[in-house]
Amino acid sequence: MNSRLTKLSAVILLTVGVIVLLSPLNSQWLNWYLAFNSTLLKLIVDLTRVSLIALLLAGLLSPFESLGWWAGWYGDGIETHIPATIPMNLSAKSSSLPQPSRYIIYLDGISQSSADYPKRVQNFLNTLAAALPSDMVFIQDIMAYSALNRPLTIQRPFARVWRGINHIETWNANSPLDIFVNLRNTFQVAVSTDNRYGPVFNRGTAQVILNSLRQRGYQPGEPITLIGYSGGAQVALGAVTYLKYALDAPIEVISISGVVSGNNGVALIDRLYHLKGDRDLLAQLGAIMFPKRWPIMSWSSWNLAKVEGRVQLISLGPVSHSGPSGPIDPVATLPNGNSHLGQTMDIVMSILT
């Protein structure tokens, strides 16, 4: 009932927004600012209207890539099970190596736009890779917000725009342009949670992960851990249903400051470790936005998994969502003297080992 009310409210707000922004009656109820005879005010309001229209269109078009992949427009095949044999180009190399004890896949947050991670994220990945036992395989090349595993900066109509944004951010870390990347990827997270388009998007993400596992000689049944940061945690959970079906293997998810809906993947997950800081407003907002995570929804997959012990909530203390006070910052320190990164690494390694 609460879920239906939330969706109905969203549809009503979207409808009103379309009417207000696109209706021919715009001149009667939005041109009030002309009475002030201010060119600057008129410019600001007009730019706001155009931005809202562009934002609306971007949201409506966000499932397009996933639907195109599903329709076969990009030539990528859809598989249901991973082959039970090692690829030929890996068989000789793998014969002399020990069998991996676990495969670990990292899915980045909503700031991901290219194959190159931000400095803070790359430092976390390098630290984790160095700490992992030699018999664990660490996969870091997943584009979490693309069913085609394509970064925003190549093979896209607006690739030059995204490259320009990245170039500006390279020499100006405080540039506000990264909000466009965040908005674009936030829409993809929303698609993942959607009951209509989510299965297609999540199936595409699972296919990307399957392909990456195959390239590294994965054998069905070997344990898998998905590490999702921010929106990457939702993408990871969305893919779990299809990975579980394809691989029939133990699958765990480590959510770092994750914004997760709790309505997909949780029913089949072996274990979900949800790491969240006390100052993480986005993660707290996620718990409010998605009705299936509300405590009163005791029959939801999320709450049933919590009762069964398959969802474990881990507090990171006075840590925010991202940035200099986020969970992977190597400089910020906790009251006990440990760095934010050090604490996160301790928790993650205790889970993995």
TrEMBL record:
Recorded hits in InterPro entries, A to Z, give: AB_hydrolase_fold
- Tell me the domain of life: Bacteria
This protein is called: Thioesterase domain
Q: What is the protein's species of origin?
A: Phormidesmis priestleyi Ana
